[in-house]
Amino acid sequence: MSNHLKMAIVQAILHLRSLHWSQRRIAAELEIDRRTVQRHLARHRAGSNAAISPAGSWGPNAATFPGLPACQWETSDRATGSDLAAASNAAIPPAGSVSVSGASKAADQPAVGAPPTGSATAARGVNTTRAGRRSDCEPHRELILAKLDQGLSAQRIWQDLAADHQFAGGYDSVKRFVRGLGFAPAAPFRRMECASGEQAQVDFGSGAPIIGADGKRRKTHVFRVVLSHSRKGYSEATFTQTTEDFIRALENALAHFGGVPKTLVIDNLKAAVAHPDWFDPELVPKIQSFCRHYGTVILPTKPYMPRHKGKVESGVKYVKNNALKARTFTSLEEQNRHLAHWEQAVADKRIHGTTKQQAGKVFVEVERPALLPLPVERFPCFSEARRIVGRDGHVEVAKAYYSVPPEYLGRTVWARWDARLVRVFNHRWEQIAVHVRHERGRFSTHGQHLHPHKINGLERGVGYLLGKASWIGPQTHQWAQAMLAARGIEGTRVLQGLVSLGQKHASEALEKACETALSYGAFRLKTLRQLLARTAPRQEPLPFIDEHPIIRPLDDYAQIVARAIHRQASRPSLDEGFTRHDSGVRGAAENEHSPGPPAASQSCEPSAAISTRPRPGYPLSGCSSAEPDSVSPDSCSVVPPSLFHQEKAP
């Protein structure tokens, strides 16, 4: 609305305030901003000068809206005006026009700003006193006023009068009468026309309430689709505005039209638009799949810009004010049946205000052939959500678990499920798994989703194990087949053990063992193990070597033993002398300090000489360093001279 209000609205604000209406109530009644009401009331209290009425105006038309009381001057000459109108039988002037007789009365009107008086009913009849013949709607004044109080439109009022009160007048008669009561026209919008089959506009509005048998009142929403070229519409009532409700209602509308428009214009409702953006909006994934299924494109409007889909905005108002206003239903099905009948009997047969043609007729003749064909099947009904792949390689869907390929472990995927199937997609919306729907708590695992290291031979099946047995040899394969025929299911483990024997033994040995066991009809794994143990190659003994470069000859050990025996036989007693290797040193020391005879070691000069020389660890040639414990140091300290000389002899 413009910043400058019309004088009639300003006078209405002042009059309603004089009736002790609140600013909020005045703003709601006149459909203006509450701050505007406050500003004009403040100017009036400050004593601002009233605006000069334009030339030819009647004066302060304070009562130009439904429910507003008229000024006193508006009812003063009602009888005279009616009598003159009946006598002259003049034509009814268009709504908002001023007759010559009305202009002549301008001098008799009160001053601008005079406090108006009168009832609300008299106020709504202000324009009926103008020159012209009496309206055909005058006998139904009270009924029309009551319906206006309910918020019904002139179209709906005319329909009710024609259906329930045998009203013979036309829609224009009711429209002129309602406008004369102060029914202001809507603000104009720029209209954007489309070619047939190009566009359809979609929106939600409030529906009629549902009152059940228990008396509880439940709110509903009405879904509305309007084809932009023919204005053919479809309406459906729902309890919620979820994505599923939006898709099902839109799908029912396309089936009702018998085709698909190229584009669908919607607002930014959360059920369809994930992230609103005028340049690059992001739709809900389920809506994207719906568009691909039907071959159409959804174009959301600019946020907070409803005029981008003005055709369906008017269509929703048309349904609310004409089909559902002041009605209640006992169930949602009853309301949808009423809407379907209303679309066929009323909406399709009306002459549209813009096209000046019947919407149903234009649709059948022009737009239906231009629509895209419907797909063979309807869009599948499913639910979807994000899921994280667990450590066991499964995702949880409706309390059941379904496997995915092992490379998606720990990643986020999309799951879609319906009553029959569960589909899993990656972030690029590529299908990676399909499962049959299972009960709660059940697991569905595909073999190709298991890691190869986590699959044993029994899970791979008997055929896989027989194939591996055939790789060993023909005899092994024949024994495996005969064993399975003889032992049945329990033979699968025996077959797995046979394959493991092929990894431990040579193929020739296992082939020979299987051939022998098959000839005797022995089909136990224990028999094969015993045959393999008997036929295993024996280890050949190492040859005995008479001489080795690091081992001394036996003759050397014989000489050492002979010398040791000789030393034991020729060893003197303790009384005769020293027997230790250091006896020569001790004897020499005693001879220097003792006057006694020399020790017995003096008579064994060679022996004393041998024992007094620096002694390494093993001084004798008969003592081997490889066997230090074979001969004691004491036994090597005294050597007979004869053996010594023999050893030194060339």
Kindly describe this structure:
This protein has 650 residues and is α+β, with helices and mostly antiparallel strands. The chain has helices at residues 7-18, 23-30, 34-45, 78-88, 100-104, 120-124, 141-149, 154-164, 171-180, 243-257, 285-294, 310-323, 332-347, 359-367, 457-460, 462-472, 474-487, 491-504, 507-520, 525-534, 554-570, 583-593, 605-612, 641-648, and strands at 199-206, 210-211, 217-218, 221-227, 233-238, 263-266, 273-275, 282-283, 297-300, 383-388, 394-397, 400-403, 412-417, 421-425, 431-436, 443-444. The strands form five sheets. It has a five-stranded mixed β-sheet, sandwiched between helices. Strand 2 (210-211) and strand 3 form a beta hairpin. Helix 1 (7-18) crosses helix 3. Mean pLDDT is 76; it is low at 50-91, 94-129 and 581-650.
